[in-house]
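Team,

Forwarding the record for the chain on the shared tracking sheet. I've put the sequence and predicted structure together so nobody has to dig through attachments.
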Amino acid sequence: MSSVKEFESHFNRLMKTRGSDVTLGHFESAQIENDGNTLHLDVIAAKQDAPTIVFVPGTAAYGLVYGNFLAALGDVGFNVVSFDPRGHGQSGGKAGSYTIEEIISDTRATVSYARKRFGDNIFLSGSSQGGIVAFYTAATDEKLSGVICHNAADLADPKNLNMTTHPRIARIFKYVIIGLAKIFPEMKISIARYFALLSKGENAAKERMAKDPYMQKIITLKALASLSSAKMQRPVEEIETPVLMLHAGNDTIFPQSLSEHLHDRLTCDKQLSVYDGLGHFLFSEHVQSVVPDIKSWVEKKSG
């Protein structure tokens, strides 16, 4: 584990590459325990009675990869609680070894921390894998004011495979991974290779993520199998929590048809916003495009 000083220097450089003046001083660090793991949290305390956004980062990422996005949420008046899931960033657990169910458990523990500190007006948000976790958490009995998903999926829905570029290859890949994970659950796959398999686009952003020393460099077969097949606690159609789905029009990882299919299945208060011309890294590269829309939606749902 590197020193706080080393991480601060890294974080400040990262923000400067995005044209942001956000520093580590914007955040308060905290820790909680869950399932025997210490989870690292980054907190912005705006106002006690303001809405609170709990944030789940994407695959291999830690919360402060999205530091400019989180700070922008704080700047518009929201309390923010971001966390590094087990096996990610500064949290405990085996690197890259987790299931969707385990990260949902970490998410709910973080929501509990946020609720005790800031009250019950909690909105859960996530990006990429984090968007899926936020969506899955909405299908539990967790009481949330709303969920904000940049990308989402029902991982057990076989129709997802028909929306990929090569559905037959995707179907074979899925069942090979699930089969191997039963035998070698902790077998490690390079994150760089995994990112390359996901899509051929947005290579510059993926390279920057892969070179970040605080990003996880591996993912286990156990995690990949869960990402290929995890079931929701209740069907999409039975979700009651309001859902805001955000999709980048030029996303090379999540097809727009997947977001549209999922949105159609929802019967709750729902909204799908598509950002034409923008790529997958919406919450780190295009903060000013999304934060005003999130602010407006959260304020409406907060009454």
